[in-house]
Every structure is written in structure tokens, then in C-alpha cells.
Write a structure and sequence with these properties.
Layout lengths: L4 H5 L16 H5 L9 H18 L8 H10 L4 H12 L14 H12 L4 H8 L2 H10 L5 H21 L4 H23 L33 H44 L55 H7 L7 H11 L8 H4 L9 H12 L14 H16 L8 H8 L3 E8 L6 H11 L5 H13 L15 H6 L6 E6 L3 E7 L7 H8 L4 E7 L2 H9 L1 H11 L5 E6 L8 H17 L7 E5 L25 H6 L13 E8 L8 E8 L1 E3 L3 E5 L3 E9 L5 E2 L1 E3 L5 E5 L11 E3 L7 E2 L1 E8 L7 E6 L2 E14 L6 E4 L9 E8 L5 E2 L5 E6 L2 E11 L1
Bound molecules: guanosine-5'-triphosphate.
The site of guanosine-5'-triphosphate has 23 residues, from helix 18.
Keywords: Cytoplasm, GTP-binding, Hydrolase, Nucleotide-binding, Protein biosynthesis, Translation regulation
Protein name: Elongation factor 1 alpha-like protein
Subcellular location: Cytoplasm
């Protein structure tokens, strides 16, 4: 059976896969916690992993260093199998590679040969040769592949020269002469020897060309050839140049003469008696005030001399202008001023009767007196978009009007029509199965995906062929045990790493219930994704590895953290799947221990024990998943199977009558028909085709064009609790992001920036920065005040203004969100507070400003 629509889409069509990583690279993301020391849990996992890897590697790989093993484990998230494969590949004994002759460049050969040929003087010789000029000459030889070696040789030469000049005093002249002789030796003898076979070498002197300066000849003619005109032009230019030179000379002489006169003048002035200053008429004078000094009379207009007509041959152009415009020209360009156009056209048409002569366009006095077909189409579009329609319609409509009408019809037809259903009544009368969504949580590698894969396989949601194919693929990378998990983990990254990264949403049905699995990642780096899954769930399945070591590390890690998040987000029903019971031989003792340890913890986390069911099972073998366990060691267990426990779970009460609230869990581009689709759980209210919804925080509206249920079937409506796919129109994809809220435009949710909440602390909490999560939506916030500590059961204030809130305490705190538009929050809404990759608390919104 092929996978269903919703199934195949899971995780493959994310609108913005980078979302979880924001703007930083994967390395940065993974390395977020690496700056800190390893946690206790990490250390334990690392130690256990190292032992396992060593065992798997065997004595053959005893040389593998511990640090390499640790690196591999860290890189592969403690995945022993992958680490072993990696290390085996890395340390596999390699066959000695055949000795490859070292590629030596021609210049290196030349240099080597030079060294060999002048053993006695190599050092000094080379050093003396290293004058700057030689080095430059050598650098100039640097061509293509030889460039590097030549360049390095030049460097050596320069260095050598510097050293030489320091160590051996010699006159510059000696150095120069030696240098030049050596340089010529080097460049001529050695280079010549080694470049003898290049095409540009060994050219006889007689055939060497001499490069001379090109005479300044003027290229004339179109093709650069000479012509009489060109010769004339050249001559004229030469004359001009000569004239210019003569002028320059004269100017220079004049300047010299001027200077002499000036000097004389100065000498003269000294001798003369002081006289009244002479007004210099050459300088411009400006009146101080307009009124005092009348403006100088306007200079008489200078009569411009008429420019003489250039003498030469005059070409007389015949007057080609027609006395009358042609018929075609008259039709196109004739203007009413020249002649009554109609008459002219009429007469032309009458004299040349043409097949189209009676067409209306020709006889129209003014073709622009009516709107063009384009105008009509535009008007029609505007009308269909809401502009008032013209009530009167002319009887005999033109082609353009007809076209406009059809466009108008088309546009109206593509508009989404609402059936205006009473969705609540429809839902109550349709006899739909119970709808329940559950999130699968637990520590990394405790077997969540495998258990879900097994469930789907046993319920025949996926066919045997698909599983066999996955098995083969998994085997090829040495991960056959992950075949079932791959039914949930569908991205290449998840499969290669062996860890779930994002929520997988998979629907399946039993006789009584339509379930949706929300498989959450167990790794602590992906807790934000896990929170998004929890926000859509009615109840949770906590998967716990029955093996002692794994169980203990889970209890210190995400088994506890996930359970706390689930509880603080309002989930009360919990199924604890004590998994991998096959690895502990279905030991009742082990099962009881796990049950005891977790129960103690659940009590402290305010779970009601009557809402918790413990199921021993083995996802890999399928024991006690959908069918009872056959192992005789498991005879002690007579309780329900995992599937029965699922069936016995009641979904949360649905708020059908409240305004629509839907958190977007996925945004994707579908077919050409449905270019923009989203999916997510309806938290409250109902929706139907044709409804307009408001997206927050973008505040953009969209229209629901079509609805698809999780099993891929189309629907006219959907209600709270369902996780439908909505095909939207009238909105751009940029306005919709994962975690955004769709709500009824008539009852929008407020974007809140400052609020008070009741917070259950998981860690010590003080006034501090925190990341505030509303599902997948996130904003940075600051806990500005710790108002009081509350009694867990009664909610009464037990202490005011505490300086710190301890883990397990409930406190009333004030939070201000920073630098964002705010989060769409309502009173009673749930949030999770994280700091530095750790969940520090969870809150229930009490009030906001
Ligand atoms: N022996 C045994 N191995 C199991 C069982 N269930 C899962 N495994 C193995 O445990 C490993 C991890 O299984 P997953 O299903 O990927 O674990 P997970 O909890 O989904 O991991 P994340 O999603 O990355 O948190 C795989 O090698 C499984 O084959 C089981 O019942 N018995």
C-alpha cells in the first residue's frame, strides 16, 4: 500500500528547514552546549559508548585511540554502530600505495641541476646571483605551472643575497659584476639547457625579430588602410600641431618678456613719487546698494556676424513630400484639422473598395472615443475585485466587451465560495470517529520511532514491501535495526545520524479512533521541536528503555525533562511504554523497578497516577505492541497491549464553540492548483472552505480554498482536535511561518509583549533572560520580577518577592519580551521557558498588558 498523503509529506516539505537552526550553521547549533563542560549524562553515555565501541572493534583495532572513539561517539550522538563503522573505515589497514614518482616541475629540475653542476659555489653563487634584478628577471619567467617554483627560487635568491651582504663584505661593484655574470650564467646556460624543447626556445638569432617603436602613422579609411582623404587629414593634423607648437613658443617668449617688464615696472615704481591710486577698469566693480548706484546701461546687443555658408558642392534634394497623404497614412495619421477626416477616408475608401472597407473601425470617427479592449478587461477585473459593477449594459456588445465579460466570469469562478455550513452541527451529525493525537516522547534512542514503526507495520498502515525496502537500505549502512524507525525518520539526515530531528506526523485508524502520531525527537538539542509536538497532543506516550544503564541516563536526561514539559503544557494522560523488554528477558523485577522509579518522579511532577498506564513491550520484536507477548518469561503480565492502552485514552475536551485557533506545524508548496498549503492542529473552533483566516504575527489574511484531512481525503470543514491540511489563497508564503497562529479575524489573539504567568520551575530561576516558547514560536524574554511563591495545590501565596525560585516550586513571575512583535498569547495559554539549551520552567499565562 502506498504511503498516504499526509504520511509521505511528513518532514519532507518544510517551508523553511533552516528554521530550527535560525541563522547559524549546524556546527554552531550542535556546538551550542559544547562550550560548557560535558554533563554527567554525557559523561555516562560517553563511558558506556567507549566500552561498547571497543568491544565492537575487537582486538584488530586495539590501536584506535580513546580520544578518537570519543570524537566519533560525540559526532554520531553516541551511536555505537555508526562510530564503529567510521572508526573501522578510518583505521582499516591500508595496502601500501605504489610509489608515485614525485612530480617535479621543470624549473625545480633546472634549479637542482644548477645545484649539482656548481657544487662548490652553490651557496655563494646562488646568493650572489640573488640580486633584485635577477630575482625580478626570474620572476618574469614564472609561467603557469613553473611559477611557484620560480617565485620560491626568487625568494631564496633575495634572502641569500641579504645574508651574504651581511656575512661577506664585498664592494657593491664586485657584487654587481658577479651578480650579473652569474645571472646571465644562470638564466642563459641553465635555463637554456632546461628549456631547450619549448616552442619559443632555440630560435636562431637570424630569425629573431627586433621590436621597434611603431611610427606614428595615421590610420585612415574604414578598414584602416590609407587613402587620399586620410593623407589630407594627417597633413592637416601635422599643420595644426606645428601651429600649436609655434604658439607655445611665442607664449613662452612672451611670458619671459612679461616677467622682465614686471621687474622693470617694480624698479620703476620705487623711483616714482607716490600718486593717487589709479582705478583699474579691468576689474569688475559691484554697486554697494542697488538704490545708490544705478545699474550700468545695458550693453548694446552685439550683432552676430552671419556665418558664411560653407562653400562647396551643394546637393539639392528633390522634394519627396507628397501633396496629399496616402490613404493608409491618412487613415493612421490624418488629423481633423487638416481636412474632415471622415470625408477623406470615405473618399479614399470609395475610390478603392476593399473587402474590409465596411468594417466599423474604419468608419469610426474617433477610435479612442470608447475604451480599448484592454481597458475593458481591466475594468472587469476591478469590478470582480469588489468595485461597484455598472448596472446598465449596452445591447450590442463589442468583441472587447465580450472578452471582458468572459474574464470577469473567470475571475469570479476562481474566487472561493463558502457553503456557509454550521460546522458544529455537521460534526455532531456526521458520526465521525473519535479523534486523538498523541506525542511520543522520551530519551534519545529509547526506541520511540521503532515502536511507532512497528505499530504502523502491524496495523498494515505500511505494506511489507516498503518495510523490506527500508530494511535493505538500512542493512547497506549497517543499521538494519533502524528499518522500522525509518518509517518515521524520513529525512536523509535523520537516517544517517540515526536520530529523530523533527516531529513526524503520521495518521492511522483503529476501529474506534482516528489517531495521529506526533513522533518527537529525543535528543536534547531538538527540544523546541518536541515542544511543538506536545502543543498539538491530547496525551503522551513516554518510551523508557528497560535496561538499567539506559534507563538511569534517561531519568537524568530527557525522560524527566520531556515528562515535565508535557505536564506543564497541560497533558495529564500518560502511557509509559517500558520498551526493549526483550533485552532484559521480560524480567518482571526490572519492569517493577522502572515503574517504581518513574512513579516517584511523576508524583513530584503533579501527575495524577490514575491517568498513567505502564505497558511492558518490545518495539523491535513487536511483543505486546498490537499482539500479546508470546515469550514465556512474560507470563506474569496480563495487562493491555500498547494498542489497547492507546484506545483507552480519551482525547482532551474540544472547544468547538470558541473562535478559531490553529497553530501552523508545516508550511509547504503543493501542486499548481494548491500553491500554498499549511497543516497544524485546530486548538479551538472550526473552519470551512471559503473562511477568511488571520495569520499572526504577520497580521495577514488568507482564504481557505480547500481542506484535506490527515488521511488525504478532501473535506468541507474541520473541527478542533483535527490536524487538517489547508490550501490557502490570497496570501504570500512569506507571511506564514512554522509556529504561527491562524485565528478568526473577528476574534484575533493579541500579540503580547509583557505578561504575568504562574511558573513551575524545573531549575533555579532568578530575574534573568529566557527563551519563551509558544509551541514552535519563540521570543527572547526577560524575567523582570519574581512576585511570589505559590502553594502547588491551593495556589495561595506562601512567600512574597523571593530572590530565587527553586526547582519544583511554583512562582508568579513577570516577563517582558524583547525586540519582537510579541507572541500571540491568551489568558490560560501555556508557554515553556528555556535558557542556554535547558528547560528552566513552564508557565500558564495569568494576565498581560
Ligand atoms: N533490542 C531492542 N532494540 C530496540 C527496541 N526498540 C528500539 N530498539 C533499538 O534502539 C535503537 C534506537 O531506536 P530508535 O527507535 O531510533 O530510538 P528513538 O527513541 O526513536 O531515537 P530518537 O528518535 O533519535 O530519540 C535502534 O537501534 C533500535 O533498533 C527493542 O524493543 N528491542
Amino acid at each position: 500500500m502506498p504511503p498516504k498523503a499526509g504520511f509521505s509529506r511528513a518532514k519532507t516539505v518544510g517551508y523553511d528547514d533552516d528554521d530550527i537552526y535560525d541563522d547559524y550553521s549546524e556546527e554552531e547549533y550542535v556546538g551550542e552546549g559544547e562550550g560548557e563542560a560535558m554533563s554527567e549524562e554525557d559523561k555516562e553515555q560517553m563511558a558506556a559508548g567507549v566500552i561498547k565501541v571497543r568491544e565492537a572493534l575487537g582486538s584488530e583495532y586495539s590501536k584506535v585511540k580513546e580520544v578518537d572513539i570519543q570524537d566519533a561517539l560525540w559526532n554520531y550522538y553516541y551511536d555505537v554502530g555508526k562510530s564503529v563503522t567510521f572508526l573501522k573505515n578510518k583505521y582499516a589497514p591500508k595496502a601500501p600505495a605504489p610509489a608515485k614518482p614525485k612530480a617535479v616541475s621543470r624549473f625545480d629540475q633546472a634549479a637542482g641541476a644548477a645545484d649539482a653542476k656548481t657544487p662548490t659555489s652553490t651557496g655563494k653563487h646562488m646568493l650572489i646571483c640573488g640580486t633584485e634584478s635577477t630575482a625580478r628577471a626570474m620572476s618574469n619567467l614564472a609561467i603557469d605551472g613553473e611559477g611557484e617554483s620560480i617565485a620560491s627560487l626568487c625568494e631564496t635568491l633575495r634572502d641569500g643575497l641579504a645574508a651574504m651582504s651581511r656575512e661577506t663584505p664585498f664592494t657593491e661593484r664586485t657584487a654587481r659584476s658577479q651578480a650579473s655574470s652569474c645571472a646571465s650564467d644562470y638564466t642563459s646556460a641553465r635555463t637554456k639547457d632546461f628549456f631547450w624543447d619549448v616552442p619559443w626556445g632555440n630560435v636562431p638569432c637570424s630569425r629573431l625579430a627586433t621590436i621597434t617603436a611603431q611610427p606614428a602613422t595615421h590610420k585612415g579609411g574604414l578598414l584602416g588602410g590609407s587613402s587620399k582623404l586620410a593623407a589630407l587629414a594627417a597633413k592637416r593634423k601635422q599643420k595644426q600641431q606645428e601651429e600649436a607648437a609655434a604658439k607655445a613658443d611665442a607664449a613662452a617668449n612672451g611670458l619671459a618678456a612679461d616677467k622682465a617688464v614686471a621687474l622693470l615696472d617694480r624698479l620703476n615704481i620705487r623711483d616714482k613719487p607716490a600718486s593717487a591710486p589709479v582705478r583699474d577698469d579691468t576689474k569688475p566693480r559691484y554697486p554697494k546698494k542697488r538704490s545708490e548706484t544705478p545699474p550700468p546701461p545695458e550693453p548694446a546687443p552685439v550683432e552676430e556676424e552671419p556665418i558664411p555658408e560653407p562653400q562647396g558642392i551643394r546637393i539639392e534634394f528633390p522634394n519627396l513630400r507628397a501633396k496629399q497623404p496616402s490613404m493608409f497614412g491618412a487613415i493612421l495619421c490624418g488629423s481633423p484639422q487638416d481636412e474632415p477626416r471622415n470625408q477623406h477616408v470615405e473618399s479614399a475608401l470609395n475610390s478603392f473598395p476593399l473587402p474590409y472597407a465596411n468594417a466599423k473601425a474604419f468608419t469610426d470617427a474617433d477610435p479612442f472615443s470608447k475604451p480599448s479592449p484592454d481597458d475593458l478587461v481591466r475594468q472587469a477585473q476591478a469590478r470582480s475585485a469588489g468595485a461597484p459593477k455598472s448596472k446598465t449594459k449596452t445591447k450590442g456588445s463589442t468583441d472587447g466587451e465580450k472578452l471582458a465579460e468572459s474574464v470577469e466570469k473567470l475571475v469570479v469562478e476562481t474566487k472561493v465560495k463558502s457553503k456557509n455550513l454550521n460546522v458544529v452541527d455537521e460534526y455532531r451529525n456526521c458520526g465521525l470517529k473519535k479523534v486523538a493525537n498523541f506525542v511520543v516522547i522520551g530519551h534519545v534512542d529509547h526506541g520511540k520511532s521503532t515502536l511507532m514503526g512497528r505499530l504502523l507495520y502491524d496495523l498494515k498502515v505500511v505494506d511489507e514491501r516498503s518495510v523490506d525496502k527500508l530494511r535493505q537500505e538500512a542493512e547497506t549502512i549497517g543499521k538494519s535495526s533502524f528499518a522500522l524507525a525509518w518509517l518515521m525518520d524520513q529525512t536523509p539526515e535523520e537516517r544517517s545520524r540515526g536520530v529523530t530531528v523533527d516531529i513526524a506526523t503520521v495518521p492511522f485508524e483503529t476501529e474506534q479512533t482516528s489517531f495521529t502520531i506526533l513522533d518527537a525527537p529525543g535528543h536534547r538539542d531538538f527540544i523546541p521541536n518536541m515542544i511543538a509536538g506536545v502543543s498539538q497532543a491530547d496525551f503522551a506516550v513516554l518510551v523508557v528503555d528497560a535496561q538499567e544503564n539506559s534507563f538511569q541516563s534517561g531519568l537524568k536526561g530527557q525522560t524527566k525533562e520531556h515528562a515535565l514539559i508535557v505536564r506543564s503544557m497541560g497533558i495529564q494522560r500518560l502511557i509509559v511504554a517500558v520498551n526493549k523488554m526483550d533485552t532484559v528477558s521480560w524480567s518482571k523485577e526490572r519492569f517493577d523497578k522502572v515503574r517504581q522509579a518513574t512513579t516517584a518522579f511523576f508524583e513530584t511532577a503533579s501527575f495524577s497516577l490514575k491517568n498513567i498506564t505502564f505497558i511492558p513491550c518490545a518495539g523491535l520484536t513487536g511483543d505486546n505492541v498490537t499482539k500479546r507477548v508470546a515469550d514465556e518469561n512474560a507470563e506474569w503480565y496480563s495487562g493491555p497491549t500498547f494498542l489497547e492502552a492507546l484506545e483507552a485514552s480519551e482525547p482532551k475536551p474540544r472547544a468547538l464553540e470558541r473562535p478559531l485557533r490553529l497553530t501552523i506545524n508545516d508550511v509547504f508548496r503543493g501542486s499548481g492548483q494548491n500553491p500554498l498549503s499549511i497543516s497544524g492542529q485546530i486548538e479551538a473552533g472550526t473552519l470551512q472552505i471559503g473562511d477568511v483566516v488571520l495569520a499572526l504575527p504577520s497580521r495577514e489574511t488568507a482564504t481557505i480554498k480547500a481542506i484535506e484531512l490527515p488521511d488525504g481525503s478532501p473535506a468541507d470543514w474541520a473541527v478542533a482536535g483535527q490536524i487538517p491540511t489547508l490550501h490557502l489563497v490570497d496570501i504570500d508564503v512569506v507571511h506564514l511561518r512554522l509556529g504561527d497562529l491562524l485565528c478568526a479575524p473577528t476574534a484575533p489573539v493579541r500579540l503580547v509583549k509583557s505578561f504575568t504567568c504562574k511558573m513551575l520551575a524545573f531549575e533555579h530561576v532568578m530575574p534573568q533572560f529566557v527563551d519563551v516558547f509558544r509551541g514552535k514560536q519563540q521570543a527572547t524574554g526577560l524575567i523582570t520580577a519574581l512576585a511570589s511563591i505559590l502553594d502547588k495545590n491551593t495556589g495561595e501565596v506562601t512567600r512574597r518577592k523571593p530572590r530565587i525560585v527553586r526547582p519544583g516550586e511554583v512562582a508568579r513571575v513577570r516577563i517582558e519580551l524583547e525586540g519582537s512583535a510579541g507572541l500571540p498569547l491568551e489568558v490560560g495559554g501555556r508557554i515553556v521557558l528555556r535558557d542556554g539549551g535547558r528547560t528552566v520552567g513552564a508557565g500558564l499565562l495569568e494576565s498581560y498588558t
